[in-house]
Each structure stands twice: as structure tokens, then as C-alpha cells.
């Protein structure tokens, strides 16, 4: 595995949809399902499947309630999810800014 | 994956993350209705206060302000509850923003009532002081959302306040009323329109 290998990244976050979900949820306290769907521009089914994966991994937490007669599903990141997202972004930044010498050093180490 | 491809991919991913996070943070700007409400209520109150002070209206300015503030808070508190319940996102920035404006409102009330009651804040000076406090609230809010618009509004309020303090005049109530429409209710209405704007991002699975 090289330092530029994407297999080094958290496979759970390494999907544009799941990465986007975490990017949004780490910027807010919580967000409605419909807000996430509109921001990410995906379908209900697709978003639901990705959110389930993140929920099963303990990266997001779901809460369901009613506003009037309308059911509302809200999501927020867990501490584990925020940590995983921070690590992922840190790793991307390292890939982007590292020089070949860094790579050699890392491989040697 | 080659080094160049990996760098390209990382750069693209980071750009997407940055844009999504910025968009999510911008969502906190969805507080336009409070600016519309308070801008309108205070604009009318300033005109009535001017009439009351000049004797055109046979009521005490205190009655004018008590009515205006009672009406403002009476609508503002349920509006805030409704907004929080129906907000698509709840962010820490949104709460800080609310705290800034609630603090600004309470501070202005204390300045107005205590200053006017004791006479430490003479009538013609009050609009200038209030304009500067409002400008400060806009400036503090600009670090959370709509930086350019809110900073422009802060500068406008500070300029207006400074002018009114340099030239204190009973007619400053009317100037303040125009300021409430131009620099509070109007921009608030623009924000409510902008809040419904669809997201720009297009992502693939």
C-alpha cells in the first residue's frame, strides 16, 4: 500500500454520498432527512440506505418525531462519527499536500 | 491509484466537503422573518414616537414603546419556537445568532426605558445610540452568516448612528424609522426569499 492509496481511507466514509452526509452533519447540530436529500441531490431510497450504513457503524444517530401531523426524521453525528470524519479529512489533506519525500519516509518507517 | 490521481481525487473530495460545509453553515442565515418583524414594528414605533414627542399624537411615548415592544416580543417568541421546530437544520451558529439578537433586543429595551426614565439618555440622542447597538449586532452576526450583507448593514447602522449622534434632533426618530425599513426589514425580506433557494450541489453516488 502506498501513501497515496485510497484503500488507506475509512471505507465507510469513502463514498461521495456518505462523505457528503458527514460533511453536512458535522457543520450543524442536527439536520432533517429532507434537508440532507435536497443538499446532496439524491433519492430518498439511496440516501436512506447510506444513512443506515452510517447509523449501523455508530457514526450518526437518528431521532424521529412529529411536527403537527408530519413525521420528521433528524440525524446528528456521534462523537465517533466526528472523529472518523476528522481523520478522513486529515488523511485527504495529507495526500494532497505530501511530497514524494514524505511518501518515501512513510514507507521506510 | 497513481500519485497524481490520488492527489486529484483528494483535492476534488476536499472541495466537495468544503462546499457542503459552507452551504450547511449558510443555512443559519434563515432568520429573515425576525428582521422583517422587528424592522417593521420599530419603524412604525419610531414614527408614532415622533408624533407623541411633538404633541401630534395625544399619548405618552412610553405607551407607544410598551405597545410596540409587547407586540414585537409577543410575535417574536412564538415565531422563534416555530422556526426552531420547522428548521431543516439546527446549528450551534443558529443559537449563537439568536442569542446575539435577543441580547441586542433586551439591551435596547434597557437603554430605552432606563435611559429615558432617568433622563441619562436624552430623547434626541436615543436613536443614535440604538443605531450603533444594532450595527454591532449585525457585525457580530456577520461572522456567522451572510458576511458581506451583514457587514454592509453594520457599517450602514454605524454611519447612521454616528450621524444622529453628531446632529441630535427630534426628527431623528424619522431617520431611524427609515433606517429600520432600509437596513432591517428590507434585508430581512431578502433573506427570507434567499432561504428557499435550492442547493447548488450536484453529487453522484
Question: Could you please describe the fold and organization of this structure?
Answer:
The complex is a heterodimer of chains A (about 110) and B (about 200). Chain A has helices at about 15-25, 35-40, 45-55, 80-95, 100-109; strands at about 30, 60-65, 70-75. With about 110 residues, chain A is an alpha+beta fold. Chain A has a single domain, classed as Arc Repressor Mutant, subunit A, CATH 1.10.10.10. Chain A starts with 15 loop residues before the first helix and ends with a helix. In chain A, a hairpin with a 2-residue loop joins strand 2 (about 60-65) and strand 3 (about 70-75). The mean pLDDT of chain A is about 85. Chain B has one domain. Chain B contains seven helices and one strand, in the order αααβαααα. Chain B is elongated, with a radius of gyration of 21 Å. The two termini of chain B are about 20 Å apart. The interface of A and B includes residues 15 and 38 of A.
Q: Which labels suit this protein?
A:
heterodimer; A: 109 residues; alpha+beta; Arc Repressor Mutant, subunit A; three-stranded antiparallel β-sheet; 3 strands; B: 205 residues; mainly alpha; 1% strand
Amino acid at each position: 500500500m502506498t501513501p497515496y492509496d485510497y484503500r488507506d481511507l475509512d471505507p465507510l466514509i469513502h463514498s461521495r454520498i456518505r462523505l457528503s452526509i458527514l460533511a453536512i452533519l458535522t457543520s450543524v447540530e442536527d439536520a432533517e432527512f429532507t434537508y440532507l436529500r435536497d443538499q446532496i441531490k439524491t433519492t430518498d431510497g439511496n440516501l436512506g440506505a447510506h444513512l443506515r450504513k452510517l447509523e449501523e457503524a455508530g457514526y450518526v444517530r437518528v431521532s424521529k418525531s412529529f411536527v403537527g401531523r408530519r413525521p420528521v426524521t433528524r440525524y446528528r453525528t456521534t462523537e465517533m462519527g466526528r472523529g472518523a470524519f476528522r481523520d478522513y479529512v486529515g488523511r485527504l489533506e495529507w495526500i494532497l499536500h505530501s511530497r514524494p519525500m514524505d511518501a518515501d519516509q512513510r514507507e521506510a518507517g | 491509484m497513481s500519485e497524481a490521481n490520488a492527489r486529484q481525487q483528494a483535492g476534488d473530495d476536499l472541495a466537495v466537503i468544503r462546499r457542503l460545509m459552507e452551504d450547511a453553515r449558510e443555512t443559519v442565515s434563515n432568520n429573515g422573518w425576525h428582521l422583517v418583524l422587528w424592522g417593521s414594528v420599530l419603524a412604525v414605533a419610531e414614527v408614532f414616537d415622533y408624533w407623541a414627542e411633538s404633541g401630534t399624537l395625544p399619548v405618552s411615548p412610553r405607551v407607544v414603546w410598551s405597545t410596540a415592544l409587547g407586540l414585537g416580543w409577543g410575535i417574536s417568541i412564538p415565531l422563534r419556537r416555530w422556526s426552531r421546530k420547522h428548521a431543516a437544520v439546527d446549528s450551534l451558529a443558529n443559537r449563537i445568532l439568536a442569542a446575539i439578537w435577543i441580547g441586542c433586543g433586551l439591551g435596547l429595551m434597557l437603554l430605552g426605558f432606563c435611559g429615558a426614565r432617568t433622563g441619562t439618555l436624552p430623547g434626541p440622542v436615543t436613536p443614535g445610540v440604538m443605531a450603533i447597538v444594532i450595527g454591532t449586532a449585525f457585525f457580530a452576526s456577520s461572522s456567522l452568516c451572510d458576511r458581506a450583507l451583514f457587514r454592509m448593514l453594520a457599517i450602514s447602522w454605524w454611519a447612521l448612528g454616528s450621524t444622529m449622534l453628531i446632529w441630535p434632533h427630534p426628527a431623528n426618530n424619522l431617520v431611524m424609522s427609515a433606517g429600520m425599513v432600509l437596513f432591517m426589514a428590507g434585508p430581512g425580506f431578502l433573506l427570507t426569499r434567499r432561504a428557499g433557494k435550492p442547493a447548488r450541489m450536484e453529487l453522484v453516488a
